Amino acid sequence: MTPHGLLAPDEPAPARLIGADTKGRALLICDHASPRIPQSLAGLGLPVEAMARHIAWDIGAAALTKALSERLTTPAFLANYSRLVVDCNRALTAEDLITTDGDGHRIAGNEALDPAGRDLRVTAIHHPYHAALSALIDRLAHSGPVALIAIHSFTPVFRRRARPWVAGVLYGDDDRLAIPLLGALRQQKDGAIGDNEPYSGRNPGAYTLHRHGSARLIPHVSLEIRQDELVTPNGVRRWADRLSRALRPLLGTAGISP
Ligand SMILES: [Zn+2]
To answer: Which residues, in sequence order, are CB contacts of 230 under 8 Å at separation 6+?
Structure first.
């Protein structure tokens, strides 16, 4: 066990960086990249098949983030643990920081969590995740303009309603990247693109970009891709192509080398 007592010595750090040796300055961030639960939490009492479902992670988001990192030759920062352990895209005060309800599934291992158990997850994962991200952004920002692009995926059906968008562009007050990106994706005329749909970028749920983008005045945008678009390698490639085509020119215009 580490001093934190949550992660075993053979388990990965809270996050990993890929494309560290690239010259790109648009940092891709994937908060919900992994369904992994630390061994010490015994699967949170969930059946194994539940872990593969979307409640544990954003299906296809990690694969898309990696493919886009290659297309744009830019670094990507990905979470190594499930949002069910502690959601790194939530403030420490958020009710669903450690959720007990995964889209209708009870998360037994979170229901009985005491304050010490909660602190352990925050100390072992949430804090080091954001400290590493912050240090990385500092390093990049030291040598010129930077942009942050968050990659998520959403379920095709929510509360029995089919979601009509193939993807959504999410943003709050800073729409420097979002508005031109929305225009570029819509111009591709390949399925409906949501404007702050299926979620709003103003939602407190958009914690990572609020903390590292808004607070530091760094241009940022969040992308949500519908999960059925990303279930095959071809689908992932297609979206990596679409997004890199849309992003490359507008990052260039903003003076940020993609
Ligand atoms: Zn997500």
So the answer is: 59, 60, 61, 63, 64, 153, 236, 239
User: What is the CA(257)–ligand 1 centre distance, in A?
Assistant: 26
SS3 content of the chain, % helix, strand, coil (to 5): 40, 20, 45
21-30, 40-49, 58-67, 69-78: least confidently modelled range = 40-49
Ligand 1 center to residue 68 CA distance, Å? 16
Give the tens place of pLDDT for each residue, 135-175: 999 999 998 899 999 999 999 988 888 899 999 999 999 99
Please give the distance, rounded to the nearest whole angstrom, from the Cα atom of residue 152 to the centre of ligand 1.
4
248 Cα: distance to centroid of ligand 1 (angstroms): 23
As a whole number of angstroms, the distance between CA 85 and CA 79 comes to 11
Q: Which domains does the chain have, with CATH numbers?
A: 15-253 (3.40.630.40)
Task: Flag whether the pTM goes above 0.90.
Answer: yes
Q: Which residues contact 116 (CB under 8 A, 6 or more apart)?
A: none
Contact yes or no for 221/250 (Cβ under 8 A):
no
Asked whether 122 and 86 are in contact (CB, 8 A), the reply is: yes
Q: What separation in Å is there between the alpha carbon of 60 and the centre of ligand 1?
A: 10
